[in-house]
């Protein structure tokens, strides 16, 4: 504790290095410098270097030159009483000014400290009368300083609230906001805190303007400081409660992953339905083509069965008439030629469109429609129709095999895509979790830094209280010593009066 206090005092860059707290702060001058560095004292007017600093400066000057040594040795006996009285007067004046300044901050001693001071045997002379004017100036300066501090604390409070609001907005943008603590309630609490702080500052300012400076200083500063500390603690607690927990982050990640999985399942279902409808349509087209081919083959077989009877009848008619055979013979080749041409056209269509089911069905339907209107004239044409039907069947089987292979490849690709998507989801989840953990660590570190600053401010307040206690101890000890001296003088006067009365009585009892 002592080491930390020494380091903190060295960081203030005082007029002389700190060696010992008891000896260096005995005259009160360095303590006034500390208050000035902390902006609790506006100037050093009226403060003088007392016993410890004067002794240190005189010893350092005496160690530099021999002439000063000789002078100090010769004049030490004559000026010892005057130097001690002036140093003691300076110390008492410094402590009186410090007491007035600390009264403005409203720092009091505990009853135990007062009892210890009253039971001590240290003494100091009374303060100089010239310190009254400086005390009044100190009161006015303390009131002004209190008003400045209240305004500065209001500004700092508003700045802290703005920082916390921006912090909440950043959390909500990143999706890490706590659902249990909405931003509206926090903003309302912050607004209420700022309004109460502004009202307290206005009341303190009004009291300082209307009443006495000492009363304003005693009533405003500690209440504002306590309210400020409570507000800072409350804001820190709200900020800590607003931090997203690990469970909430996990739930949020699970919700996002569930939404992604649902969208993926819906997309896969739509793809499967489309492929199933395409397959059903293809099967229906194949069935229609097969039915048309079967009907054509049946018609061709019926025509081939009726052809011998028609040929025999034609031959009989030719034998009977004698002039119809050449025309019938010419008609038969002419009828066979279009059939062969239609078969060749259908073969070309089927060979050129073997990979497309829709084209093959259209070509087969066109060929069947073109040739179904007339009977087959020979067995060769029937054979060609059967061969063409077999080729159509082979093409359909080949198309079905190709489609099965394509479906297998598509299923494999879908599985690969699903695995890749799962890997991406796992990686994204790890990244989100790591980012949330880093953000939580940053927030916790900022909260710890704020708590360290608060501890440092409390340490400063403890140092101020300790210095005030030391000052109060010295002042009360001096007052006690003065009272004791006055009592001793009164007792001596009473004893002298009693002796004089006894002498008078003795003189009266023995006449000359």
Automatic annotation (TrEMBL):
Keyword Flavoprotein on entry: no
Record Gene3D superfamilies: Calponin-like domain
Coiled-coil intervals, chain numbering: 400-430, 475-505
Sequence segments annotated as region (Disordered): 49-86, 338-382
PANTHER family for the chain: AB HYDROLASE-1 DOMAIN-CONTAINING PROTEIN, UNNAMED PRODUCT
Composition skew (Low complexity), residue ranges: 338-380
Annotated Pfam families: CH_2
Residues of the CH-like domain: 6-56
Protein name: CH-like domain-containing protein
UniProt keywords, alphabetically: Coiled coil
A GO CC term assigned to this protein in UniProt: cytoplasm
InterPro entries: CH_2 (IPR010441), CH_dom_sf (IPR036872)
Taxonomic classification: Eukaryota, Sar, Alveolata, Apicomplexa, Conoidasida
Keyword Coiled coil: yes
Domain of life: Eukaryota
